[in-house]
Amino acid sequence: MKIKTLYLLSPYIKWKTFKLLQEKIVKESGPVPVHSDKIIWQMLRDKKIYCWFCQEEPNDMMLGLELPEYDKLEIIKSK
Would the pTM count as exceeding 0.90? Predict the structure, then answer.
């Protein structure tokens, strides 16, 4: 599956911005591990994983070791 627009989180994103995106976009359901968002942010900062949003998976942040194919790339970073 090829993604039209991939919104990639920069590994230099601040914790406050990352947490705000999690609160506003991601809809959690069911049990969630304690501090999992902090662990994911630290892995992103260490460049161990990629984190992104896309229209094909609304209300969820995707994670991976590699990026999927995409037509357009937008980088989300802190100001």
Answer: no
